[in-house]
Specification:
Blueprint lengths: L10 E13 L6 H6 L7 E14 L4 E5 L6 H9 L6 E6 L3 E4 L12 H11 L4 H15 L14 H14 L4 E4 L8 H16 L3 E5 L3 H7 L2 E6 L2 E6 L1 H12 L17 E9 L5 E2 L1 E2 L4 E10 L3 E11 L5 E3 L9 E3 L4 E9 L5 E11 L4 E5 L4 E5 L21
Parallel strand pairs: 3-7, 3-8, 5-6, 6-7, 12-20
Antiparallel strand pairs: 1-2, 1-4, 8-9, 10-11, 10-13, 13-17, 14-15, 14-16, 14-18, 18-19, 18-20
Helix pairs in contact: 3-4, 3-5, 4-5, 7-8
Amino acid sequence: MQPGSGEFPAVSVEHVSKRFRLPHSQYHTLKERVLHPVASRHYDELVALRDVSFDVAPGEFFGIVGRNGSGKSTLLKCLAGIYGADEGAIEVRGRLSPFIELGVGFNAEMNAHDNVLINAIMLGLTRKQARERFDEVIAFAELEEFVDLKLKNYSSGMAVRLGFAVAVQVDADVLLVDEVLAVGDASFQQKCFDEFDRMKEAGRTILFVTHDMSTVRRFCDRAMLIERGEVLDIGDPEDISRKYGEINFGQAGGGEVSGGAGLPRVQITGAWCEDAAGKRVLALPPGARCTACMEVEFEDAVPDAGFSIAFRNDVKHTIYVPGTEQEEPRPFAAGSRAVVRFEFDNWLAPSRYTLTPRVHGGARRDLLDHREDLATLIVDSTVYTGGVADLPTRVEVRTL
């Protein structure tokens, strides 16, 4: 255990396993079951979690990362009591507030006012406390104009804002947050990040599931990497982020992130974006000056290194790739480090962008290192044109 360590962990998970039965055939009527009574007994078993153990200290921000289907969300649902563990034990000390799935706990036929009160009470507030904090919940969610609207008419982003606003108002000792926050718009995600900073300062214990490694490195005290339901490693967020990237690109399975045997050893250790003042940022408005940065360590000498960073939008289309193709390759000595910066005016369309930095070398531009989705930039605007970039344009309209 680490931060704020008291005598006992805030969350303790010991040898937890969870399995699901997947029937070969699914029947929806009584007639189908009567006609095929034996077939429904055949099923496959999916092991979602296998012998998972870890402790989280009071006041710790603990990241849980892994690829899709690795068991992250199943683990959070076991912690929240939505699923029961088949084996092992889970202990949570203090009030728990889960925010782990879009729409869970809300009644689509009820309006925001009634949903907020009911959910706040279910999460441990008294009726008086729920009523007193209602205005704060709605203000945080920025839904003042939609209080009387039924939730079935809410967009997914509006529902996310409402759910998270309720969860953070409960003053829980332990908060569970799933990657559902990615559904929210860019400005609200930034508001959530500000709330994370506040909760860290207040000593709250937070378990956070995400695919965004820049968020892990920014907020988490420790992180845990899960693959196929098993814990691969627990440790420093930077190390876990690197191993997550290696798994995504195949290194953990025997392949390599970089170009292969015989090539110089190079390691990308970080990537981020800066604003015009040189401050690291997660979000920028259109038109703002932006600098995309990458940090590189050269274990071996590279006589002709080149660099690039690919920007992919929220549907994984590559939109922009600043690089050094027009520059002369530079030599780097063994043991040296470098920070590479690409400065540009941000005319990317509103979206959530992931940054994938690359280092290459040699006449064939061999890939020396490659870190998939190592950082994130959110471009937020009230105007959406439908294009992938919103270039500055002079408009002239003449009446004839």
